[in-house]
Amino acid sequence: MKTFLPVLLAVLPALSTAAGAPDKPVSADLADLLRQAESSSPAIRAAEARALAARRGPSQAQAPPDPEVSLSYLNDGISRFTLGQSEFSTLSITWTQEFRYPGKLAGAGEVATLDAERAGKEFERARLLVAAAVKTAYAELYRLDRTRSILEESRSVLETFSQSARKRYEVGEGIQESVLKAQTAVLRLEAEIARVEQDRRTAEVGLNAVVGRAADLPVGEATFLPEGTLPADEMDLAEIAVTASPEVATLDTAERRQEAKLRLARLDLRPDFIWSASYQNRDGLDPMVMGSFGVRLPLHRDRKQAQAVAQEESELLAARQDLAGGKVRTRASVLELVSRVRRADRLLFLLGQGVLPQAESTLESARASYSSGRIGFLDVLDDLRALLNDRIEIATQEAERMQALSALEPLLVRELIHIPAADAEAGGPRALDR
Asked: Is the pTM value of this prediction over 0.85?
C-alpha cells in the first residue's frame, strides 16, 4: 500500500491527460478509406452474410422429405397382456416415406439456386455502391477543405486591403465607408468559414458512417482529387450499363426466379405420394408384414394451389415491370451522370483557362489603380469577391465531376477514377471465399 499510492499519484495525471486529449485526425487518403470500407462497412458485411446464407438453400430445397419411423402395439382385449398368446396382438414398427411429384424438388432447387445467385449479385452491388459512396463523400470533403483554404487566403488579402483603407482614411485620402465595408467583408468571410467548418463536420460524419467506423472520428484534410475520365465508348455507355449493371442483373435474376416459382406453383397442383412398410412381431407366432401406398390429394385446390399460381403470376408480372423500370432508370442515370461530367469539364475549362486568369489580372489592375487613387475601394472589393467566387466554383466543379464519375462506376462496373495501383489493389474485387 505504501508503494502503490505514490505510483497511482504519478500515473493519474498522465491518464487524465490521455482521456481528455482530442482524437488525432485519421488520414483522408482515399485508398485507405476504400480499404477500410471494404473490410468494415456494415452494408458490405450484411450483403456478404446474406450471400453466404443463400448458398445453403439449394441443398435444403432439393432434399426429399424426411422419413417417419413409428412403433405401435396392438393388444387383443384389455384385461391382460396378450402378445404371443393371441394372433391378433402385434408389436409393429412402421417406416413411412413421402415423395413429391416428379419435378417438384428440382423446381424448388432451381428457385433456391436463383436466390443464391441474386444474393451474390446484391453483395457485388453493395461493394460497388459503398465504394462509390466513399469517393463521393471524399470529394465533398475535398470541396469543403479547398473552400475553407480559399476563404482563409481571401481573408488574409482582405485584411491587408482593410489596413490600407484605414491608412488612407487616416491621412485624408480615403473615406470611412471603405473602412467599414472592408471590416464587414472580413466578418462575412469569417462567418462563411464557420459555416464551411460546420459543413465539413457533417461531411466527416457521413464519410465515417460509409466507411463503418466511429462517427465522431476526426478526418484529416483532403488535399488531392484523383484523376478520372469517361470511357472512350461514351456514346454506348447507356446500353453497356444495362448489360453490366449489378442492379439490372439482380432484377433479371429476380425475374428468372419468379418464373421458376410459377413453374413450381403449377407443379403443386399435382398430388404427392406416400408409401409405408410395417413389420409386425407376434412373439412366438409367425410375424406379419404390411405395405401401403397413398396419395396426398389437393382437395382444397381452389383455395390453396390455384391461389398460389395466381399469386406467382402476379409476382412475375411485377418482376418483369421492375426489370423494365431498372433498365430505363439505368439508362437515364448514365445519361444524366455523363452530362454532369461534361458540364463540369466545360466549366472547369472556361473557369481555368479564361475566367480565373482574367479575374486575377483584373484584381491586380484594380489594386494598382486603387493605390494610385484612380478608383475607389469598393471596386477593389468587388473584384476580390469575383475572384473568390471563381476559385470556389472551380473547387465545386472538381468535386462535382468526381462525384458524377463515382456514381457512374457501379452502373458500368468500371474503374473511372484512377487511384494509384498499389492502393487500388487493396480495394479490388473480393470473392466470396467461405
From this structure: no
Per-residue pLDDT tens digits for 236-249: 889 999 999 999 99
What is the grid cell recorded at 327? 433498365
* Pairing label, strands 417-418, 227-228: antiparallel
Q: Under a CB-based contact definition with an 8 Å cutoff, are residues 387 and 185 in contact?
A: no
Q: Cell numbers 472520428 label which residue? A: 217
Which grid coordinates are listed for 236?
454506348
What is the chain's length? 434
Q: Which helix (H) or strand (E) holds 73?
A: strand 68-74
Cell 390429394 maps to which residue?
A: 297
Report how far residue 283's alpha carbon sits from residue 198's, in angstroms, rounded to the nearest whole number. 90
Please, are residues 276 and 95 in contact by the beta-carbon 8 Å criterion? yes
Put the strands of the sheet holding 90-99 in their side by side order: 68-74, 90-99, 272-282, 285-296
Model confidence at 327, in pLDDT bands (50, 70, 90)?
A: very high
Residue showing cell 385446390: 301
Cross-strand partners of 68: 96
| DSSP bridge pairs for 7 | none
Averaged pLDDT, 292-321: 94
Largest CA distance in the chain: 136
